[in-house]
Amino acid sequence: VAHASAADRALVDCALADLNVAILDSLDELSPEIVRTCASLVVFAREPQHVFEFLDALAALRPDPTHVPGELPPPPVTVCTSLDLDELVPVLGKARIYEVLRLPVDRHMLALAVERSCERWALQFELRWASLQLESLALAKPRSKNPTDPELPRQPTNVVRASAAMQGKRIPTLLGVDV
Questions:
Q1: Short-list 18, 9, 3, CA closest to 111
Q2: pTM for the structure as a whole
Q3: CA-based Rg of the chain, rounded to a whole angstrom?
């Protein structure tokens, strides 16, 4: 949670009491570790500059969009603001804002927004995991036969091999079948 006033902090503490919440006092506290380990980011923005600063700092810390396989997906951003839509439109086009909530926000609305944001993050994580598994299955498939590979001899499964001297001789077996 970033740019939260004292009232916003009290709201976050009440609404998200069962979650591990990190409240950032300044953008200097935003680190790659926080971005990598959280499933949802919430920014309270009463001025356009707050939104721009936060999203610029976040963009600098986010991993390369051509992510490394197995890397956690970036967390969705929820912006709680009373700004006009005209002030947010430039940000919406270039940033990964998942949801915008209009202030004042009650605790139920904030809890539901964070829950949706976390569900989206979990879905992205599952999709990346499934993609990795499919890629590993594709790599593990036996290679197709090369036309230049020699063919293996084909024999019926019920043939018992015998030397040339033994061929044509009747050999009784325990089952009463001659070989």
A1: 18
A2: 0.70
A3: 32
Task: DSSP for the chain, please give it.
Answer: -BS--HHHHHHHHHHTTTS----BSSGGG--HHHHHH-S-EEEEESSHHHHHHHHHHHHHHSPPSSPPTTPPPPPPEEEEE---HHHHHHHHHHS-EEEEEESS--HHHHHHHHHHHHHHHHHHHHHHHHHHHHHHHHHHSPPPPPTTSPPPPP--TTPPP--TTTTT-----TTS---
Find the mean pLDDT for residues 50-59.
88
Would you state the structure tokens that stand for residue 159, as one six-digit string?
A: 């043939």
Q: What is the mean pLDDT of residues 20-43?
A: 91
Interatomic CA distance for residues 152 and 174, integer angstroms: 32
The mean of the pLDDT values for the chain is: 82
User: What local confidence, expressed as pLDDT, does residue 49 receive?
Assistant: 86
**pLDDT, average across residues 16-35:** 91
